[in-house]
């Protein structure tokens, strides 16, 4: 796959959160990854009931929002037939500490682009600070016409952490950001639903929900959420240096089904009616394509199909 992940170290002052030094979806040439073992660095993981607070920045249609909301609601839903998005998320239970149950909380619509259409990382952090911080992951989702520092050039999404009260270490909270790449860099951040910008030129897959940008966002959102709960504060599970770690999903880049190799997503399911590719069933009849996740019990990249 045409993506590699890395973390960006940011130094901020005052009460602004301090970004994680570890979880951007970094872009690079397609390379064959050697077998990996993610080391546990003895830090806290995000376990138990976690509230997902969403800030929609810019113009998202109701259809686009429903694609992402159905994905998030599916992560803890037992109602979808196998292979399911919930069974994909259950791999996070194999990391120390038990289950991570995600529940939708506050949603903020910022359709008027309150900070403009070109955002710095510090502005992203200002946005996540608007939502509640207790036992939560605050997520900013930026629309297709919003440029963000490093978007496309080095990352498709990222996660980090900060303190709602700098004097209270118990006030630490996690956040994430993902952007819609459809008009800025679909070849990097919406692969395999778009022709890659470099590497093997295999035909793109058909997006399961008919929206290349938002279906790509789901892949990137899945990636950063898995990284958030298993390495929220730079001392959880990862391999390599903390400044450029490989996490639960980034360690398995470009793998969606069995037999995957650079430029080929692997053998996945195909909807006979639409021709769309997927590997996860979800609520409301949705289907998604979700990336492989490293399984700490088997030390392998686990796929749903």
Automatic annotation (TrEMBL):
Position of the signal peptide: 1-22
A Pfam family this chain is assigned to: Phi_1
UniProt subcellular location: Secreted, Extracellular space, Apoplast
Keyword Secreted tagged: yes
Keyword entries, A-Z: Apoplast, Secreted, Signal
Major place of residence: secreted
Gene Ontology CC annotations of this record: apoplast
Domain of life: Eukaryota
UniProt family annotation: Belongs to the EXORDIUM family.
Descriptive protein name: Uncharacterized protein
Protein source organism: Camellia sinensis var. sinensis
